[in-house]
Amino acid sequence: MTTAPCPFCHETVPSAELERHANSHFELEDEYEQQQQLARDRDLAKQIALAPNSPSSTSPRSVTNNLVMEYMPCEPSCDAAIRGYRESHIDENISCIIGLQIRSTFYKVETGLMALLKNCLELESGNSTSILSGYVDHFQSIESEDVGWGCGWRNIQMLSSHLLMRRQEAREVLFGGSGFVPDIPSLQRWLEIAWERGFDALGSEHFNHKIYGSRNWIGATECAALFRSFGLRARIVDFGPKELESLCLSVPGSSLGPQVLKINDRGKRKVVQVYGPMDKYILGRNHDVPLAGSRGDEKSRYSSIELGNTLGVEGGDNVPNKCERKSKGSEVLVQWVWNYFSDKCLSKSGHHRVMVSEKPPLYFQHDGHSRTIVGVQVKHQQNGMQQFSLLILDPAHRTTALETSLKGNVGWQKLIKRGVHTLKKPQYQLCYIDPGVASGEELELLKRVDSIFLEV
Fold first, then answer.
1. Suppose 67 and one of 96, 119, 345, 404 were both cysteines; which one would form an S-S bond, judging by CB atoms 3.0 to 4.6 Å apart?
2. Taking the CB of residue 44, how many other CB atoms lie within 10 A of it?
3. Given pLDDT bands bounded at 50, 70 and 90, which one contains residue 9?
4. b/e map 73-97, b = 16+ CB within 10 Å
């Protein structure tokens, strides 16, 4: 049998096999080139799929930032390839979203919406005391963008506006330290990052781990998961009748306890056992171990705070002495809100009728809609009774309408005030944010979004 050396590798092979052997070198090169091309194609597909929709020609962000976000959903052809990268590239994904996120546009009230509201409250007749969150921008739903489904995202934007303006520690961590409130698509990307990192696993499963580009409704648990992913101590409280304690609010993605069973396709879940950061000091329950998602050193605050001389200001003759936990119906919710805003860090206005709290606004959820609570008012009636009202910003309202009514001091009450008698839903849910930034073990505990149920 004759042999001959290969002209490429110089290996001696049978002459009859020489041609096949030599061609195999080209096949290997072709295969390598194909792999390289496939990798380039994947990168290009990811860049196209994950770039912001319809980028403006005047915006250099989409052109100059040559970044690829590997975590975003895309066409099936590249989705499988991207999925394998997700777990090992979360940090890279975060870097990408920081570069590609877009500042949300909104109507900026020149003198500040909360300043206008404070002025109107001071001018009201009668004997009343009001407490307001110090700063909140109003983000309205836009007809061409999110009317009918985006209220949850708009409320997250309102909470973010306060945190970025009034809490330095939050400003440093929120949205990669960008210092601005992102638009809804960018917030959707951040929520997917939170899910990838393990925050609210049950909620992530409900949405099939994808939210970007969708019009799915979100609820308080998605709000909490998003803020918790930045280390913020977002907490959830549920209010409802005793007979509905075993059912969570009908909000997509709800995961209000360590043992949750999905019982239908509309997002309702049956809670077998509910623990949360509030039950230790609202209901006076004793627990031997710290609760998941809580600090474990909670003090009795919102149920037992003595209102009046303990408001952080001198005096307090016009302030209720205490919000009793035995109140009925929606009064439980309203009085909880009063205790929340009146807990420390208050400054009085010139007329001593309006106090400004450093507390962030509250994400206020009920079946079908969500709004933002920016304060609370109590009117002291001549018969000794106290009439409470929530002060609410609704993303369904136009910001210009709010501004006009407040500047003219006409009709703003119908847009902002909500008395106890208007709270007719069977269940409500609040999300609030405690001070500080969690890390280490506490941050791991925050990945499980839980809640406390309060009977109304």
1. 96
2. 12
3. confident
4. bbeeebeebbeeeeeebeeebbebb
Task: Give the residue from 279, 260, 259 showing the smallest Cα distance to 268.
Answer: 260
Helix (H) or strand (E) holding 226: helix 220-228
Give the Cα-Cα-Cα angle 398, 404, 409 (nearest 5 degrees).
Answer: 125
Enter the tokens of residue 389. 């009202």
d(Cα 333, Cα 424) in Å, to the nearest integer?
A: 12
Q: Is 26 helix (H, G, I), strand (E, B) or coil?
A: helix
How far is Cα 269 from Cα 253, in angstroms, rounded to an integer? 9
Distance CA 234, CA 438 (A): 10
DSSP state of 422: G
Alpha carbon distance 287, 417 (integer Å): 38
**Residue 201, both tokens:** 């696993």
CB 437: neighbour CB atoms within 10 A?
16
Tokens 């002495």 label which residue?
Answer: 321
Residue 184: is it exposed, middle or buried by C-beta count within 10 angstroms (0-12/13-18/19+)? buried
Q: What H or E segment, with its residue span, contains residue 378? A: strand 369-380
Please state, as a whole number, how many other Cβ atoms lie within 10 Å of the Cβ of residue 226.
Answer: 28
The letter for the amino acid at 36 is: Q
CB atoms within 10 A of CB 159: 27
Query: Distance between CA 405 and CA 276 in Å, rounded?
Result: 40
Cα separation, 431 vs 415, whole angstroms: 22
Max distance between CA atoms of the chain, in angstroms, equals: 118
Distance CA 162, CA 118 (A): 16
| pLDDT confidence tier of residue 384, bands split at 50, 70 and 90 | confident
Q: For residue range 108-127, list pLDDT tens digits in order.
A: 999 999 999 999 999 998 88
Judging by DSSP bridges, how do beta strands 128-133 and 354-357 pair with one another? Answer: parallel
Tokens at 121, concatenated: 């409250």
Instruction: State which amino acid sits at residue 34.
Output: Q
